[in-house]
Amino acid sequence: ILLNHNIYAEESRYRGMVPEHCELRCGSRYTLLRDEFRKEKKRKGRESKIQNSEFKILIAMGGADHSNINIDILKALQDLQNIHLDVVTTTANRHLYELKEYVKESSAVTLHINTDKIAKLMSGADLAIVTPSVTLNEIFYMELPFIAVKTAENQGEMYEYLRKNGLPVLDRFDPSRLKKMVEEAVRSLQYELVNFSDLSPDEKKMVLQWRNHPDIRKWMFTHDEITLKEHLQYIDSLKKREDRLYFLVKKDNKAVGVIDFTNIDIKNKTAEFGIYAKPGLRGVGNILMELIIGYAFKNLGVSTLVSEVFKENGAAIKLYSRYNFNQTGIKKTDNGYVVHMELKNEDRQI
Predict the structure, then answer these.
(1) Do 339 and 209 sit in the same domain of this protein?
(2) Are 7 and 161 in contact (CB under 8 A)?
(3) pLDDT at position 24
(4) Which residues make beta-bridge pairs with 327?
(5) Exposure check for the chain: N or C terminus, fewer CB within 10 A?
(6) Hey, is 309 helix, strand or coil?
(7) At what angle do helices 201-211 and 228-237 cross, to 10 degrees?
(8) What is the dihedral of CA 341, 344, 349, 350, to 10 degrees?
């Protein structure tokens, strides 16, 4: 048996290099984990999500922290509000005294030295900052959102896997980029995406009222008002569709908008998206865009995200352009001119 339990491992890499009778065990299905991780994940699954005013970030940059990056990360995040940082290290860290001195006056930082509770810390965290190393095998298993920062050349293979799959990774420590990524993660994780198939009857009616509102409907390709019967039939059809997804976006259990993905093409790694906020609600366009981009590239695994928007919808074109969408064409329809816009994985900023 040949075992490579790293998340990036593929059996194809070893074919032709091992005897025919050798069994290949590669990838996350074969990740080696201590029992504590399985117990914590099971316990976490039984617990309901508790809304906490304090956002918890786990920092695990290696027990020895050869690059002495822990303090740099803490300095980069020191101005963020309502954040608690759990820093994991060991007595093998030759910068330990300096780290202890730095955090001793801060109530927003807890230092964990030689801890045997790493699974519990992951379970209780909202976000992790880690190196692109074997720690990510555990992070993936625990389904913990993360940002990876490359600190050594031997992390190259994991780094390339994350980069190619559109996952949040930095090729080197950059305080401003890291802070921006953390701020975006904090904002997005405060929002809940509710699949249309899971909406309550009242929520389905509410979404219909939004969609039929004149300020929303005028930018739809179908300008006609939709009936409740048509609306419910369409939502019911989504259960059998793999090429489209619709989500109601909530914050603090209050609905703020809708995002959707259509023409999802897994083979060619493309998808189109739609977006609208609750009628009359201002200031949520940016967060809806961040949620769309994050879900498209990280969850759907697309390489190109597409939108078709009416030329007269200047606000939408301006918003999309702000996130590096490029105009790649224009076509005439019965309802007016439509601009084709695209965002490629390599061009995205978040």
Answers:
(1) yes
(2) yes
(3) 94
(4) 341
(5) N
(6) strand
(7) 110
(8) 100
Task: Name the amino acid, one letter, at 89.
Answer: T
| 205 and 124 within one domain | no
Is the same domain home to 146 and 112? yes
Please tell me the distance from the alpha carbon of residue 145 to that of residue 187, in angstroms, as a whole number: 13
| Structural domain ending residue among the three candidates 189, 206, 229 | 189
Task: Give me the sheet containing 254-265, strands edge to edge.
Answer: 191-195, 245-251, 254-265, 270-277, 304-310, 336-344, 326-333
Strands (E), 150-253: 169-170, 191-195, 245-251
Q: Please check whether residues 175 and 120 belong to one and the same domain.
A: yes
Mean pLDDT (the chain) is 92
Q: What is the reported pLDDT for 145? A: 92
* pLDDT per residue as tens digits for the range 193-224: 999 999 999 999 999 999 999 999 999 988 88
| Nearest-angstrom CA–CA distance, 333 and 321 | 22
Q: Tell me if 131 sits within 8 A of 62, measured CB to CB.
A: yes
CATH number of the domain that 176 lies in? 3.40.50.2000
Taking Cα atoms as reference points, which of 122, 121, 126, 145 lies closest to residue 52?
126
Give residue 47's pLDDT.
44
CA distances for 204 relative to 49, 105, 133, 160, 260, angstroms: 24, 50, 44, 42, 15
What domain range is 176 assigned to?
A: 34-189
Compute the average pLDDT of residues 320-333. 95
Find out whether 1 and 30 touch, Cβ atoms under 8 Å: no
Q: What does the block give as tokens for 271?
A: 């998808």
CB 135 within 8 A of CB 127: no
* Cβ–Cβ under 8 Å, residues 189 and 251: no
pLDDT over threshold 80, residue 261: yes
Instruction: Residue 100: name the closest of 124, 65, 135 by CA.
Output: 65
Alpha carbon distance 317, 311 (integer Å): 8
What's the gap between Cα 99 and its chain centre? Answer: 30
